[in-house]
Design a protein that fits this description.
Two copies of one chain form a homodimer. Chain A has ten helices and three strands, in the order αβααββααααααα. In chain A, helix 4 packs parallel to helix 9, helix 4 runs antiparallel to helix 10 and helix 5 runs antiparallel to helix 6. Chain A is elongated, with a radius of gyration of 19 Å. The first copy, chain A, starts with about 25 loop residues before the first helix and ends with a helix. The N terminus of chain A is likely disordered. Chains A and B meet through helix 3, helix 4 and helix 7 of A and helix 3, helix 4 and helix 7 of B. Chain A binds a DNA duplex through helix 3.
Chain lengths: ~240, ~240
DNA sequence: TATGCACAAATTGTATACACTGCTGCCGTG
DNA sequence: CACGGCAGCAGTGTATACAATTTGTGCATA
């Protein structure tokens, strides 16, 4: 039986331990946790974030909570409305579509650079990840598919050798995570994704930059297309 | 005589009045002012930002200053180093090059969408802006050239009709402003820029999406090339 | 002279108290 | 009954005080 997708879970999962710096300030820990809860869907877009309530939940004062809000605000994960409080950002359907368009282009650039710079070692890792994805698809393992898919894209970021680009793309992926996650359910997306990934890999391995760029862009845009109806229902 | 470029000025200029909301919090005002001072070059990358000092300067307590730092941090204008203070972000030469590569792609996407959606009204505005740019070039008006060039790109963002994309591109332009500004000095860049803009416009007006994308991308990449030596000297 | 440790000063992180704003609900009036 | 104003409240913005950590300085020692 496939694991249930995270948003269905009732208790917030802890954020996957990040850099785990020993001197991590409270504000940063709260930021990471809230960001994770937003991306995973535990915090629904539009809900108000109460400073005192969250402060109590984490057992700290309002100060670090406020700082976490500011950090999240500039990441566009939450919206600050003056004295009217902070809310989980709820982009309009139009904005979500626009975000996907930008993401498609950034992912496309990643693929283009990957086609230029891919190494045999990375090629092997991509193929192995792809095989895992096929496996998850066979088992209808939704969560597994979602995670391995993430790894596949991460590997391409790495092959692109542009840390700044990787970071920006990763951020955008995270911002759209709450929306992408739902589409993973659609059974026909499994097959389509695998097929599209194959074409992207083929282009990258043959060092065909243009093809890598366009196939990856189309891959993300197709995802976007599949989501439009669903996105509209978000509003 | 050409006006001197801003970084040469000794006194920080006030931030150009933005949205100017009546209920603008201290933290937001400080953020805008500091962001402007960083982009204009008055605050040099790498310098430490002292909370108390800035608090005194703005006549407020440390609290709103700290919040402004957090807001700037997520915009990647400022780097927070735990208890070791905040500094104006100083990206490595490698990172600056990477930022330009991403910006080239985003500007390219703007041009692509503009080619698809440009209206006669916007075409007229672009041509008018271009004429102003030619004029500034003749007068060797460096600051004017810089500002009008900004307007030219803004017009393309508008033609692209993707607000999210426009915002992201604008941000990245702002982050690279301190570096781009220096290159404007180079006399040969005037002529090259005018020529490249002409080609971009031609592609956009003829609704040639691919050409619009690639000419704009090349335009930004050429700027990046002209900067590499200079960027290296920043370190 | 160079190195290591200890202590002091400076600076940031957090908590708490107060000020101010926007909202809610009630009441009076038309 | 509908509408407008006023008071009280809830919640954010700011200031200040205190705790924790980093950094710099000086001295002792090899």
């Amino acid at each position: 039986m496939p694991r249930s997708v995270s948003p269905a879970s009732l208790t917030p999962t802890p954020a996957p331990l990040g850099p785990d710096q020993p001197t991590m300030t409270h504000a940063e820990k709260i930021r990471d946790q809230l960001e994770h809860e937003i991306a995973s869907g535990h915090l629904i877009p539009g809900v108000r974030l109460d400073e005192s309530e969250i402060a109590d939940r984490f057992g700290v004062s309002r100060t670090p909570v406020r700082e976490a809000f500011r950090l999240l605000a500039a990441n566009e994960m939450v919206e600050l409305k003056g004295r009217m409080g902070a809310t989980v950002r709820k982009p309009s359907a139009q904005t979500v579509i626009e975000m996907f368009q930008v993401m498609a282009e950034l992912e496309g650039l990643c693929a283009r650079l990957a086609a230029r710079r891919v190494t045999p070692e990375l090629r092997m890792r991509m193929e192995r990840t792809h095989a895992q994805l096929v496996d998850a698809s066979r088992k209808s393992d939704v969560d597994g598919f979602y995670d391995i898919n993430q790894t596949f894209h991460e590997t391409i970021y790495e092959a692109a050798s542009n840390h700044y680009l990787a970071e920006q793309t990763r951020r955008l992926r995270n911002k759209t995570a709450a929306y992408r996650r739902r589409v993973t359910f659609q059974p026909n997306r499994f097959a389509s994704t695998l097929d599209e990934h194959s074409r992207v890999m083929e282009a990258i391995f043959s060092h065909n930059e243009e093809a890598a760029h366009s196939t990856m862009r189309d891959h993300v845009n197709l995802l976007s297309d599949d989501m439009r109806d669903f996105i509209a229902s978000f509003q």
